[in-house]
Each structure stands twice: as C-alpha cells, then as structure tokens.
Amino acid sequence: MTLTDPSPAVRGLIQAVRDRGWAIHRWAPGANQAPDIVGAVWMWEDGAADVVVIRSHLMGSAYRAMPCADCWAPAAVTIWDMAPPEEVLRDVLSWEPHSEERQQREAVRPPPGLVLPPAARQQLTQHIDLPHAPRPIVVPPMTTFGT
C-alpha cells in the first residue's frame, strides 16, 4: 500500500513538524514512486528521539526513543501512541520537550507494531528531507552481499 494521497489535515501536520525542524523520511519501492511509509524524527541533544511512523491512511505511531543507534527500532521508549495518522501527529506536537518533562517516565520495551524494524525498510528507497536542505537525500535499498 502506498501513501499516495494523505488527507489535507495529515499533509498540513507533516508540514507543521517539518516547519519545527523535524527531518521527514519517506520509504518507497523506487526513487520516483509514492512512499509506502512516511516518518518524521526530532533528535534531542542527549541522543533521545521523537519519532513518527505512518504506515497507512489508518495507522500511525509515535514514540520517544531512548538514546540508541537506530531511532526507527529502539530497544526502549518512554512515551508512545498508536492511532490514525492525524491523531498521532497532533499528539506528538503536544508532547513536552524532552528536557522539560515534568515527570520522569519509565523506559519500556516498545509494544508490537510501534517501531519500524530494519526488515520493513531495507528493500525500500529512502528519501530524507532535512530542514534547510535544498533537496532530499536519496538512499538506495540495502542489499545483502553474496546472495
């Protein structure tokens, strides 16, 4: 399934996170094809990350990942939400800044379906729209050598 035509509300909210400095990631079967998955990430100074993953018109997820090597597949999260994309994007925009959280949240293992493991993205072309960059960075699919 591709995300060829997200609702105007979802498009506006994706633009809102981009305007706030988030990096927008799109994973598609090819360089010039509509994305199968759309994501957004905000990296905090200590290595924690706020992440949004939109897999379909009906399902999105958002979470705050503890510092890790791969924010798309963290071992622990402190805040998380799974809901339709518009709701997830609105929720993540309302989260307190990581450094100003009033309560210390316990880090927990992400529930099934929350994160985006490497197997879900390794065969897709990744487009990364960084704030203030003139054009996206395009990363070809990962391949396994020797097969």
Structural topology:
Layout (H helix, E strand, L loop, with lengths): L7 H12 L3 E6 L8 E7 L5 E6 L5 E6 L11 E7 L1 H10 L23 H4 L3 E5 L7 E3 L8
Antiparallel strand pairs: 1-2, 1-6, 2-3, 3-4, 4-5, 6-7
Helix pairs in contact: 1-2
Characterization of this structure:
The protein is an alpha+beta fold and about 150 residues long. The protein has one domain. It has three helices and seven strands. A seven-stranded antiparallel beta sheet has the order 5-4-3-2-1-6-7. A hairpin with a 5-residue loop joins β3 and β4. α1 packs parallel to α2. The model has no long low-confidence stretch (mean pLDDT about 90).
Task: Please provide a brief summary of the model.
With 147 residues, the protein is an alpha+beta fold.
User: What characterizes the major β-sheet?
Assistant: 7 strands, antiparallel
Strand segment count: 7
The span between the termini is 27 Å
- Poorly predicted runs are none
Average pLDDT, to the nearest integer? 88
The H/E string reads: HEEEEEHHEE
Structural class assignment: alpha+beta
Question: Radius of gyration, Cα only, in angstroms?
Answer: 15 Å
Shape: globular
The count of domains is: 1
Tally of contiguous helical segments: 3
Main sheet strand line-up: 5-4-3-2-1-6-7
Fraction of residues in helix:
10-25%
Assess the beta-strand content as a share of residues. Answer: 25-35%
